[in-house]
Amino acid sequence: MSFVLNAWYVAGWSSEFDETLAALEITGQRLVLFRRSDGGLSALEDRCPHRLLPLSKGRRIGDTIQCGYHGMTFDGSGTCVRVPGQDNTPKSANVRAFPVEERHGVVWVWMGDPTLADPAAIFEIPEMSDSGWHAHHGGHLEIRSHYLNVAENLVDPAHVSFVHPTTLGNAASENVPVHVSTTGEVIRAWRWIRDAEPIGFFKAFGGFTGNVDRWHYYDLHLPSTAVIDFGSIATEKNCAEEDRGAGVRIFAIHFVTPVNEHLTVDHWMHLRNTAVGDEAASEKMDAMFRVAFDEDKAILEAIHEAEQRPQSRKPVKIAIDKGPLVYRKRIRDLIAAEQMDDLGMAISPAFVHHD
To answer: Per the CATH hierarchy, to which homologous superfamily does domain 8-116 belong?
Structure first.
């Protein structure tokens, strides 16, 4: 198992869930989501405990789900409230319920121990609530690749020059050093390209005619949410790193949700400090983002397919791999911690440690 379970993962946008039964899979676990009459969302294990038919194959009755095989009925907390033909309901007949939260039109589901589900741990950045920024939900990209490949691609500025030469990058950045910081909770990689031709994206949205200074800051929040802060400003402005808000600035946010070992969904949105309130600009940006993200998809799916074949040699690591290597280690450590019970310090220890 290669999933961190004690974490919030994105199931989709709030607008996608209504009173109908929505089946989906996260971290190899199948869920059914539906919106209750009070407006809240319930997420249940998508499997009747009787004959294992997915509950999503059943039907809604008020705020309950009736199994489509023998009619066992479950409320939004997973409690069995009816077994047709008998008065009692077996205690073991309940299904698991998963904590659900909604923030900024995004639906989050906690996949691990429900007693550890802390809504304060849900990802958020100040710009999501700032009226000076425009928030736009983009789309979903299904990628037939392991989610670790997808996430580490989002802390790797170096690939942009080669994978996205007409949209998010160009040749001017090929040999510009990438800076990496792994000391904090967030893994960050970044670089500035000074006095260079604007990339295709900012030719379209920045209105730049001369050279620009442009930046990419890639922040990876464990287990798999990435924020790419990128933008441009006219070179003659001589912009300092901390003043990049004076330029045309965009945050591309990727909520990377592992479906299973071989499939990942990238729920992507963006925030921008330009064309605020202009939905036509949002649609135009979406079109350009889709081109770039499809380029990533092709690369990542080819890598995943190659990883399934027998390997005759050890993989090569180069300087740009620092961020991804640290990321994978942190994921391994989180998974290992979840798989072990910590009994704490012994009251009367039989072993005395001196280190």
So the answer is: Rieske [2Fe-2S] iron-sulphur domain (2.102.10.10)
Distance CA 346, CA 255 (A): 40
Going by C-alpha positions, the residue among 58, 54, 38 that lies closest to residue 46 is 54
Q: Say if residue 226 is exposed, middle or buried (CB neighbours under 10 Å; 0-12, 13-18, 19+).
A: buried
- The residues, any chain, with a CB within 8 Å of residue 306's CB and separated by 6 or more, are none
Q: Which CATH class is domain 129-330?
A: alpha beta
**pLDDT per position as a tens digit, 3-24:** 999 999 999 999 999 999 999 9
pLDDT score recorded for residue 90: 81
| Confidence (pTM) | 0.90
Distance (Å, rounded) from C-alpha 344 to C-alpha 349? Answer: 11
pLDDT tens sequence across 306-334: 999 998 888 888 777 888 889 999 999 99
Alpha-helix residue ranges (DSSP H) falling in 95-218? 147-153, 160-163, 200-205
